[in-house]
Automatic annotation (TrEMBL):
Native source species: Nitrobacter winogradskyi
Transcription regulator AsnC/Lrp ligand binding domain mapped to chain residues: 6-76
Coiled coil regions, renumbered to chain: none
Protein name: Transcriptional regulator
Organism domain of life: Bacteria
SUPFAM superfamilies: Dimeric alpha+beta barrel
Amino acid sequence: MVPFFVQFKCKLGQSYAVANALAEAEIASEIYSTAGDYDLLAKFYVDNATDIGHFVNEKVQVIPGIQDTHTIITFKAFGVK
């Protein structure tokens, strides 16, 4: 499995609706509210053969209330055995 993160800018007043929609879709392993430039941060896992760009485009960005996303692809988790 390949982990990656997506930061979300939500339309005004839509952060909780977006977080709930992500949770109900059961596609994110963790969802956090955040302060700063983005409203939410979610962690996803996909199979090695899954195209992350297509996954984000087809499963994530279609959720109503999302204004913008920023995808972060990671390479190594430190301190994990």
